[in-house]
Amino acid sequence: MAKVYTGRDGRLLIDGVEQIKVTNWQLTGSLEMLETTTLGDAQRSYTPGVQEFNGSATLLYFNDGTGRNDAATALKKVLRVAGVNSTDTVDLRLRLVEGTVNHDVRLTAYVTSVSFGASVGEISSAQISFQATGALSEVTI
Amino acid sequence: MAYPTLAPTTRNFDAGQYPFKTFSSLSGKEVRILYGSKRTGMTLDLAYDNITDATADDFVAHYDETKGGFTAFDLPAAAKTGWTGATSAIDAASGNQWRYAEPPRITSVRPGISSVTVKLVGVL
Q1: What is the dihedral of CA A116, A117, A121, A125, to 10 degrees?
Q2: ipTM of this predicted complex?
Q3: B12 touches chain A (CB under 8 A)
Q4: Do A40 and B11 touch (CB under 8 A)?
């Protein structure tokens, strides 16, 4: 059946936990190209280099009443007294749901920047950016 | 093994010099004595970017075969790829051959891919 995906189908899982109050996520994949053009060539040629994956997400700064605040948990990946070390990665799943079928991109990443604030007349939210390390561990899109 | 038959990514050629010596007097008069009729000392810098490691190691094999800069050799026509002038203009001058001025440098770019730079000098 034909289907157009919308934000209603989007999910974000961090370390296996579906995040609450996610307003958007975005993933960018890129491939570095290495030029192999030599003297005498009339057209440029390339060979694949290394891949890179990064993205961002926005979560409402929301306490569900049980003390759970996913935005705060994400913010604390960077906003912390102790420094960040090499084990402070997160397991991210960027998901689009189609009934019982999940279309996932799964990756291990570092949260590289966070920002949040409060403004009059606006809901507070947290923006996080992440940088994948290593290869994607699952792609079922 | 012969020098790898491969078109370079970049090529820099210096035409060298004829062997002469200059003597200058206090008056400014200059006398030049020519010691040979053949141009020599031309240099050729070749870069081979993003080639396979298997190709890159051919340069080291050739460097070994020529005992580094000890043995002179001729370059294949592929080294002059892209040059539309007289091929002799960017080659070792008549009577010269090339030898390594420096060891080939291999820069690993990614697994299986490397870049190689070669510096050659023309010698009689």
Answers
A1: 20
A2: 0.75
A3: no
A4: no
- Residue indicated by tokens 């294949």: B76
The pTM (predicted TM-score) of the whole model is: 0.75
Q: How far is CA A108 from CA A23, A86, A140, B110, in A?
A: 21, 12, 16, 21
Q: Does B49 touch chain A (CB under 8 A)?
A: yes
Q: What are the pLDDT digits (tens) for A30-76?
A: 999 999 999 999 999 999 999 999 999 999 999 998 989 998 888 88
Rounded Cα gap, residues B71 and B100, in angstroms: 8
The closest CB to that of B82, out of A40, A47, A49, belongs to A40
What is the C-alpha separation between B104 and B119, in angstroms, rounded?
Answer: 7
B10 contacts in chain A (CB < 8 Å): 39
Count of Cβ atoms closer than 10 Å to residue A128 Cβ: 25
Domains and CATH numbers, chain A: 9-33+42-139 (2.40.30)
Chain B contacts in chain A segment 37-76 (CB below 8 A): 37-41, 47, 49-50
- Whether residue B95 is predicted with pLDDT greater than 90 in this model: the reply is no
A residues 112..141 contacting B (CB < 8 A): none
Six-digit token pair at A125? 């939210």
Q: What is the predicted pLDDT for the residue at A40?
A: 92
Task: Kindly tell me the burial class for residue B59, based on how many C-beta atoms sit within 10 Å of its own C-beta (0-12, 13-18, 19 or more).
Answer: buried
Q: What pLDDT, on a 0 to 100 scale, did the predictor assign at position B106?
A: 97
CA nearest neighbour of A129 among A70, A68, A77, A51 = A77
Q: Which of A107, A114, A111 is nearest to A51 (CA)?
A: A107
